[in-house]
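Page header: ASSEMBLY MODEL / two components / 909 residues total.
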Amino acid sequence: MSLAALFRHRDAALALIVAALILAIGLRAPVFVTPESLIGVLTDTSFLFMLTLAQMAVILTRGIDLSVAANLALTGMIAALVSRAMPGLPVAGIIALAVALGAALGALNGAFIAFVGIPPIVVTLGTLSIYRGAIFLIAGGAWLTSKDMNPAFLAFPKSTLLGAPILIVIAALVSLFFWALLNHSRIGRGLYAVGGNPVAARYCGIDLRVQQFLVYTLAGAVSGLCGYLWVSRYGIAYTDIAQGYELTIIAACVIGGVSIAGGVGSVQGALLGALFLGVVVNALPVINVSPFWQMLISGAVILGAVVINARSERRSGKLILRGSRRPAGNGARA
Amino acid sequence: MTSETCGACALPLHSGPPPSSDPTSSGHLLPPSAGEGALAASLFFEISIDMAVDASTQVTETSGLSAPILTLTGVSKRFPGVRALHNVNLNLRAGEVTALIGENGAGKSTLVKILTGIYQPDEGEIVVSGAPFICTGPRDAWAAGIAAIHQETVMFDELSVAENIFMGHMPLGAGGRIDWAAMRSRTAELLKRLEADFDANTLLKRLSVAQKHLVEIARALSHDARIIIMDEPTSALSAREIGDLFAIIAQLKRRNCAILFISHKFDEIFHVADRWTCLRDGEEVGHGAIADVAQADLVRLMVGRSIEQVYPKRDVKPGPVVLEAEDLANASEFDGVSFQLRAGQIIGLYGLVGAGRSEAMQGLFGLSPLTRGRVKIDGREAHIRSPADAIRAGLAYVPEDRQIQGVVLPFGIRANMTLASLKAHARDGFLSLAKELQTTKKFGGRLAVKAANWEQKLGELSGGNQQKVVIGKWLASGPRILILDEPTKGIDIGSKAAVHEFMGELASEGIAIILVSSELPEIMGLADEIMVMHEGRVVQRFARGQASAEMIVSAAIANEDAEAPCAGESGEALP
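Prediction written out in full:
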């Protein structure tokens, strides 16, 4: 397979780039490529994996959810406050509460977008501000630190299951969920269809409004789950946690090959996009690259990814010549 | 057109029946096939005599005028698989209105696009005011003095009248700044000339459709346009606004503009036009002076192809009534649409573009809300409020616009094929790849979809193959009632024949079919019953073989129905 053909199969190309990046950093700082260090990177990136998948589902429907990080911060704060008020509440109860609360906040987005018909970017820009403001109001502007949280609340994200950090396990389960949803369920096919061609989907009896409501609610639920995990892992809750994180999430989607125009994107692509940003953020400080270089590199990669996407789109011509083959599998032309 | 073919004319044109041979006739006519045409024509006159417009009300005879200011000679245009225009000649003269007539798809739009520089002709010559016209874009058309006014105005709603008129050629002052004062005064002058009742600073969105037409005409005049193309300018106008437009046309004639007037409405054509040119299947089939022609002759010219290409409709014994539509209506698009459809039957729905055929079918399918009417399926009332309801009730709708309403381009063939029947391919909400592939192979094979594999993206398939996938998608939903909206539009002849053959096959399997089509041979060859719609209503019904092409078309352009506002011209006054 030629290099050009490889670039056309973008998931493989992205995986190679990530691997090359890890290798290059390993040459400078061998400590980075130890198993413990790499597991640490994965654990740190868990949030980005989950939130990127949820955002991808939204973007597939030609939407966008800018409120996910604010939702995360608000549910995280409420989880911490509830835990402080009811120290006896088990962690499972806290998680259920955070997921339900996040889903409710997402459903609010969904209702405005699907049933009132306001553009997603406007609705979620509004709720972003509302949710951030609400954090300040319900906590009275206070910071909650690990002193305010009970030990069980704090211990869960640091626990392991069968030797794997629980955050990685949860991210894997969420990934499995999205893989099943998007690739193998009627709902998932509907999400791709309304993004790929909303009019054709409508003629097929697929209701855009139902799909939108579902997908924003789902994105909210994932944000809620991450809200509790974030606050308990870092042992702190205040108004500005995960400030601006929604842009990192969207960047991961774009790098992972999710089309902002809707209808195109894969679970493995989104995960690779998140992994790439996770490696950049975690590895570059190890070799003393400043945070500004990190931002610059991420930005350049986003633009590069978009250019590659656009080029691969242009390549696909019609099948006119008899006997010519362009199997969907490897994208190579004979 | 040669003198030889003219000599073969059995039907010269004159406003009164019966046709008689008259070599002095000033117009040229190429009737389809002489004998058949003559019979059809006399039949036609019996039903449509009331529609013939009194030629005496027409403006002066226009023969022997100045040289044309625009001449098309032998213009041809091909698109892959389609011959849009072939060897077309057209003359436009100063101070005259020339009507361009023809069925849907006869090539009128292509001609307009060539004159406005959107398409370049493959062959032929265009001369404007004595100079060859080479047009590579709208600016060349403006420079040559050609301006087009479209049926749906393409302007800027949020800008003022003055800005709309001078968009792209605003008067500039010192340093390249826009000279607003000059722009406003020139706009005011133009509007005054056109006797407009609004001023230069009005925002366009505050104007009615007729007023917007006026702005377009002002824009044309601001370019010193001498040739003005009006493409169905009256389709969105009320009767009063049409009167205003005609007054403007008269004024433009006095200013020595040449006008190309495109309309389906014969009363308008006979009212404003001086000359006519008729296109059929991309060829010019006749031209002449309006004063010398009768509506019947024009209709015959429009449709006059040999109806020998009969399409194979298998003889199917109709089964029980499966679908009854009673008095379907919505707010603005169609009213009183009723019919009964039997298993194995094909109903053909004919009408001109904008007659409300697709809209009525979309209402039936739950895509737009009905304000009145009932739908019964197998004798039981069905409440269809969404496409999902319609699919559940056994309906399928293959829409007209494949790219917009049919295919999901980023999807492969398999995912497109099962999109209308996901439920049947899933258990507990999870899709079965095996079942999906089974369906795809079954219908992909049956429709002979040409593709490298079943996962190939739709964007990589040809139009004909995309259409096959769309049809396959709807067949996979297991319909008992199939609505096909222009199923052969824009596909090549081979694929057309396959689609026709296939429709016969489906009917013989007991599927009831509604065929919406603008192609007469298709409707006449395939349909057991033909319904003709005009301005949102069903105006005529014919059983198979009962109607000639002329009868169907004259029903579709029925401009003199009982509810017509202009009672004075109504046919009832005539014997």
